[in-house]
Amino acid sequence: MSRDPSAADPGAIAPLLSYLGEIGYGDLYLRDREAPMAVAAADSSKAPEDHPAAPQGAPSAGGDREAIAALAALAQEASGCTRCGLAEGRKHVVFGTGDPRADLMFIGEGPGYHEDQQGEPFVGNAGNLLNKIIEAIGLTRAEVYIANIVKCRPPNNRDPLPDEVAACRGYLERQIELVAPKVIVALGRVAAQTLLGNDLPLGRMRGQWYPFHGAQLRVTYHPAALLRNEALKRPTWEDMQLVRDALRAP
Hints:
alpha/beta, Uracil-DNA Glycosylase, subunit E, 6-stranded mixed beta sheet, globular
């Protein structure tokens, strides 16, 4: 499913190096293929055969077809949701986008103005940067799944309130169950605190793997934070290299 930049021909490596420089990353790290990857607190209960790779739109088994249909039905249900006050000010419910059976799932905080207008998560400048980060680890936006903690835009892009998070929690947990990713990346403090159930600062949540709903979860900075503070690009790239390696691990 993923493309391995370390195995590419020289003509493919040069654009990747240029690309990483464009988004502020000066180093290209490649994991030693002979070295074992140590994953702290990893959940090893999910065998590879439990998550077959299938092209988008062409499920390889009846279970995949059922899961994709269930995800579509869940999106339809969410489109008319009025469980919390955010429904009153929204233009669109921003459910999720990408490969419904992706190995990698990103979860952010909630829709902003552009997301609310278009009905799709992570568009605008932050979305463009996320796309570049995804491409830098050898994938495309269409090969991952992207969702948010809440599906409707909080006023003035404030943090979602506890009752709003609770109202959307069932949708998100069902999304994770149906997509069944191998790796989840929590983008930003709100997403990480909500998923992990704590109030720790983001810096303390980074740097380790967490078992979560049959997947491995990693915490990193939100792309919007990288746009405000370029110093966060390097630690984010370090996080994403570990995500890339986990996706390639047996």
